[in-house]
Design a protein that fits this description.
The chain is mainly alpha-helical and about 800 residues long. The chain has helices at about 1-20, 25-35, 40-145, 150-165, 170-225, 245-250, 285-295, 300-315, 330-350, 360-380, 385-405, 410-440, 455-460, 470, 485-505, 510-540, 545-560, 560-570, 585-615, 635-650, 655-680, 685-705, 720-735, 735-740, 755-770, 780-805; strands at about 450, 475-480. Helix 12 runs antiparallel to helix 15 (about 485-505), helix 15 (about 485-505) runs antiparallel to helix 16 and helix 19 packs parallel to helix 21 (about 655-680).
Length: about 800
C-alpha cells in the first residue's frame, strides 16, 4: 500500500517537473530529497528520460526526409542568390553613376532650403529685435532731452512688451540689466528737480505772495469803485483753470507726451490782465516727479516726502524775524512769504490728484494761523506808533482777504484785529496825552482876541460856539475861552477820525463801529483828557486867573459835547438816539474838571489868605486902648485889597462859583482868626488884644457888607464871621450873665459861642490877669475882677459838665 502511494507521489513530482518552469523547480526537488525514497525516484526519473529520448528519436526519423529535401533546395537557392547579387551590384553601379548629378542637385536644393529657413528665422527675429532697438534709441533720446516721464513710459513698454518678444540675446540682456539703473537714474533726477523746485519756491515765496496780495488789493479797489460790470474774483476763485488742472479733474494725465508740465500758456484774451501769482512758478517738476513715482509704484513715498519738506518750509516761513516789529516792511515780507506758501499749496491741491488733500492743507493752515496770531500779538505789543499799528492793521486785512480769496478761514485774524484795537486805542491815548499836554503848556489862559469877521468865523468853525450878544459887539472883541478850547475840540475830532480809520474793512456793522468809537472817545475823555486837565489845574505856578480861565474853557467844552455826539453819528450813520447806544461821558468829565478847578481856586485863595495871615503880628498883652479909635491891622488891609482885586476877575465865572469862592475866603479868614485866638502857644491874651482883633473883624465885616461878589442876599456873607463876632462881643462887652442865662435857648444872643472856646479864652485872660497884676491883691477892683473870672470859669465848667452828661 505504501509503495503505491510512493509511486503516485513520484509520478506527480515528475509531471510537475515537466510542466513547471525550471526557476521554480527547487521546492519540488527539495520534497524529493526530504523523502526516504530517493533512490526509487531516481530510477523513475531515468526511466522517464529514456522514454522521452525514444520519442524524440521517433520524431526525427519521421521528419528526416523533409529536412534533406529542404537542404537540397537551399543549395539551389544559394546559386540563384549569387546571380541576383551580381545583378543587383551591377544595377546599383549603373544607378550610382546615373544619380550623381541628381544627388548634387538635391544637395544644392537642401542647402537652399536651409538658407531660406535661416533667412525667414532671421527676418522674424529682426522683426522682434528692431522695435527693441528703436525703442531703446528713443529712450536714449528722451533721456538726453530730459523728458523723463515719457522715457519712463518707454522703459515700461520696452521691458514688458518688446524685450520678451525679442528673445534671449546678449544685447537684450544688457538692456534688461540697464533698465533698473535707468529707473533709479530717472527717479533720482526727478527728485533732484523736485528739490530744486522746493528750494526755488522757498526763495520766491515772497514774490509770489506779493503778487497775490497786489491782486487782492486791486480787487478790493475794483469792488469799492462803482462798476456796472462784475469782475471775476482774483486768486484761485478768479483765475482761469489751467489746462492741466482741467485734465486732472477729468482724470487725464496732466502731463503731455512733451512733458510741458502744468503751466501751459493761456490764450491771450486780455492783454492787460495781471498774471496770477501761480504763473510765477513752473510746477512741472512737481507733476513730473509725482507721475514718475506713481509709475514706479512709489507714490506714497513721494507724497510723504513732499508733505514733510513742505511742513519744514512752513515752519521756516512762519518764524518771524526778531526785528519784524520795527518797520512795516518787516511785517509785509512775513505776510508775503506766508501767502506765497499757501498759494503754492492751494495750486498743488487743485491741480493734482491726491498729492496734497484738503485735510492736509487745512491742518497746515490751522498750524500757521495759531503761529501767525501768536507772532502778531507778540510783535505788535512792542509797537508804540499808532500810524504803524494802523498800517499793520490794513496789511493784516489785506493778508486775510487774500487768503480768504483762496478759501482759507480767517476769522481768527479779524478777532485778533479786534484785540489789537484795544492796543491801538491805548497807543492813541498816549499820543493824545502828549498832544493835550502840549496844548495846555502852550495855552496863554487868556480870552481869544478877534479883530475881523474872518478871524471870528475861523474860530467858531473850529469849535461850536454861539453867542448872539457877542456877535452884536463891534470888532475887535474877545471870545470868552482861550486857544485851548478850539485846539482840544479839533483834537477830539482827530481822535475820532483815527478810531474810525482802524474800524474800516473789519467787516463790522455801523452800530459796532459807532459803539467802538464812542467807547474809545469815552476813554479819551474820562482818562486822558481828564488827567491832562488835572495836570493843568494842579501844576505849579498856576494862578487864580489861569484857574478861572480853565473853568470857562471846561464850561464851553461841556456845552460842545452834544456836537461831538452828532459828529460821531454823522460819520457812522447811526442815530444818537439808537437803543443801547453808548453815550459820551464828556459832560461829566468837564464837570469834574471844572469842580476840581473850582476846588483849586478855593484852595489857592485860602493859601494866599494864609500867606497874609502869616504876617499878622498881634500884641497879645496890649493894654486896653483909651478913647482913641483903633485902626485895622496892616496885613488885614492888604488882604482885603487883594480879595477885592481877585473877585473883580471872577466876573466871567458862573455866579455860584464866585459866590462860593467869596464865602469860602471869608470863612477861612474867620476860622484862621479864631485859631489865632485859641493857639496853644498863645498862653495869655489881654483885653487890649481882643479889642484890636475886634477892630480887624469889623474891617472884614465891612468888606463883606460891600458885596465883593454879586448875588448874595442881604447880609449872607456876614454869617461867615458870626462865630468870631459873637465871641468877641461876649468878651469885649463882658456880657456873661446874658450868655450863662440864655445858653441853650434858640433866641440866645451868643448862640454860636461854644462854651469850650469861651472857657479856653477866659483861661488865657485869667493867666494874663494873674501874672501882669503883681499887686492885684492890694487893689479891690482887680481882686473883684479876678474873683469874677474865677466864678465865670467855674460856671462854664459846670455848664460844660451838665451838657456832657
Amino acid at each position: 500500500m505504501a509503495s503505491l502511494e510512493t509511486a503516485a507521489e513520484h509520478e506527480r513530482i515528475l509531471r510537475e517537473i515537466e510542466s513547471t518552469d525550471t526557476n521554480c523547480i527547487g521546492p519540488t526537488l527539495r520534497s524529493v530529497y526530504d523523502g526516504q525514497e530517493h533512490g526509487l525516484f531516481m530510477e523513475k526519473l531515468d526511466a522517464r528520460i529514456r522514454n522521452h529520448d525514444r520519442e524524440i528519436e521517433k520524431m526525427c526519423n519521421h521528419h528526416f526526409q523533409g529536412f534533406v529535401d529542404s537542404i537540397t533546395e537551399l543549395l539551389k537557392v544559394r546559386g540563384e542568390a549569387q546571380k541576383l547579387k551580381s545583378q543587383v551590384t551591377e544595377t546599383n553601379g549603373h544607378l550610382q553613376e546615373n544619380g550623381k548629378e541628381l544627388t548634387t542637385s538635391m544637395e544644392e536644393l537642401r542647402q537652399c532650403r536651409v538658407q531660406q529657413r535661416n533667412i525667414a528665422t532671421t527676418i522674424d527675429k529682426l522683426t522682434h529685435c528692431l522695435p527693441v532697438l528703436e525703442m531703446y534709441s528713443r529712450l536714449q533720446e528722451q533721456m538726453r532731452a530730459k523728458r523723463y516721464y515719457p522715457a519712463l513710459r518707454t522703459l515700461e513698454q520696452l521691458e514688458h512688451t518688446c524685450l520678451p518678444k525679442a528673445g534671449q540675446y546678449r544685447f537684450c540682456s544688457i538692456m534688461a540689466e540697464n533698465i533698473p539703473k535707468l529707473r533709479i537714474q530717472i527717479r533720482d533726477t526727478a527728485m533732484s528737480q523736485l528739490r530744486d523746485f522746493l528750494e526755488s519756491i522757498r526763495k520766491h515765496s515772497d514774490k509770489i505772495g506779493q503778487t497775490a496780495m497786489k491782486q487782492a488789493q486791486l480787487q478790493r479797489s475794483l469792488d469799492s469803485s462803482v462798476s456796472p460790470q462784475p469782475r471775476v474774483l482774483l486768486g484761485r476763485r478768479g483765475r482761469k483753470a489751467a489746462p492741466a488742472a482741467i485734465r486732472a479733474g477729468m482724470g487725464v494725465n496732466p502731463l503731455s507726451e512733451q512733458d510741458t508740465g502744468i503751466l501751459d500758456v493761456e490764450d491771450e484774451e486780455e492783454e492787460d490782465e495781471v498774471p496770477g501769482a501761480q504763473d510765477l512758478v513752473d510746477f512741472s517738476p512737481v507733476y513730473r516727479c509725482l507721475h514718475i513715482y506713481t509709475v514706479l509704484g512709489l507714490r506714497d513715498v513721494f507724497e510723504n516726502y513732499y508733505r514733510k519738506q513742505r511742513r519744514k518750509q512752513a515752519r521756516l516761513v512762519l518764524q518771524p524775524h526778531s526785528n519784524m516789529h520795527e518797520t512795516l516792511e518787516g511785517y509785509r515780507r512775513y505776510f508775503n512769504q506766508i501767502v506765497g506758501f499757501f498759494v503754492v499749496e492751494d495750486h498743488v491741491l487743485h491741480t493734482t490728484q491726491g498729492l496734497v488733500n484738503r485735510a492736509y492743507v487745512e491742518e497746515l493752515w490751522e498750524l500757521a494761523l495759531s503761529k501767525i496770531v501768536a507772532a502778531l500779538r507778540t510783535h505788535s505789543s512792542y509797537c508804540d506808533d499808532p500810524d504803524l499799528v494802523l498800517d499793520l492793521k490794513n496789511l493784516i486785512v489785506l493778508f486775510a482777504d487774500t487768503l480768504q480769496g483762496y478759501g482759507f478761514p480767517v476769522s481768527q485774524l479779524f478777532d485778533m484785529l479786534l484785540e489789537m484795537r484795544e492796543q491801538y486805542g491805548e497807543i492813541l491815548l498816549k499820543r493824545w496825552n502828549v498832544t493835550f499836554r502840549q496844548v495846555i503848556d502852550q495855552d496863554n489862559y487868556s480870552p481869544i482876541p478877534v479883530s475881523t469877521e474872518e478871524e471870528y468865523r475861523q474860530y467858531t468853525s473850529q469849535c461850536p460856539f454861539q453867542d448872539p450878544e457877542l456877535e452884536k459887539l463891534p470888532f475887535p472883541k474877545k471870545l470868552p475861552f482861550s486857544e485851548f478850547v478850539p485846539k482840544v475840540y479839533c483834537q477830539l475830532k482827530e481822535f475820532i477820525y483815527a478810531c474810525l480809520k482802524y474800524s474800516e474793512d473789519l467787516h463790522l456793522s455801523s452800530t459796532e463801529v459807532d459803539d467802538m468809537i464812542r467807547k474809545s472817545t469815552n476813554l479819551l475823555l474820562t482818562r486822558t483828557l481828564s488827567h491832562c486837565l488835572q495836570y493843568a489845574i494842579k501844576k505849579k505856578n498856576v494862578g487864580l486867573a489861569e484857574l478861572v480861565q480853565v473853568i470857562i474853557n471846561t464850561t464851553h467844552l461841556e456845552q460842545s459835547c452834544h456836537f461831538l455826539e452828532e459828529f460821531i453819528s454823522n460819520i457812522t450813520n447811526v442815530p444818537p438816539d439808537t437803543v443801547n447806544a453808548t453815550k459820551l461821558y464828556g459832560t461829566s468829565t468837564f464837570k469834574d474838571a471844572r469842580h476840581a478847578a473850582e476846588a483849586e481856586i478855593y484852595t489857592s485863595l485860602n493859601a494866599k489868605i494864609d500867606q497874609f495871615l502869616q504876617l499878622a503880628d498881634y500884641d497879645w498883652m496890649a493894654a486896653v486902648p483909651g478913647g482913641e479909635n483903633l485902626a485895622a491891622s496892616d496885613y488885614l488891609i492888604d488882604l482885603i485889597a487883594f480879595l477885592k482885586s481877585t473877585f473883580s476877575v471872577f466876573t466871567n465865572l458862573p455866579g455860584k462859583v464866585a459866590q462860593t469862592a467869596c464865602m469860602s475866603s471869608c470863612k477861612h479868614i474867620s476860622t484862621s482868626l479864631m485859631q489865632l485866638l485859641l493857639d496853644p502857644e498863645v498862653r495869655q491874651i489881654s483885653m487890649g488884644a481882643l479889642h484890636q482883633l475886634d477892630t480887624d473883624v469889623k474891617e472884614c465885616e465891612s468888606f463883606a457888607r460891600a458885596g465883593p461878589v454879586a448875588g448874595f442876599q442881604g447880609d449872607t456873607l456876614l454869617l461867615a464871621f458870626s462865630d468870631l463876632r459873637q465871641l468877641l462881643d461876649l468878651f469885649t462887652q463882658w456880657d456873661w450873665s446874658t450868655y450863662l442865662a440864655d445858653y441853650g435857648k434858640p433866641t440866645c444872643k451868643y448862640l454860636r459861642v461854644n462854651p469850650h472856646t469861651a472857657l479856653a479864652l477866659l483861661e488865657k485872660m485869667k493867666e494874663t490877669s494873674r501874672k501882669n497884676n503883681v499887686f492885684a491883691q492890694f487893689r479891690k477892683t482887680d481882686r473883684d475882677r479876678q474873683k469874677l473870672i474865677d466864678t465865670i470859669i467855674k460856671q462854664l465848667r459846670n455848664l460844660i459838665a451838665q451838657h456832657h452828661t
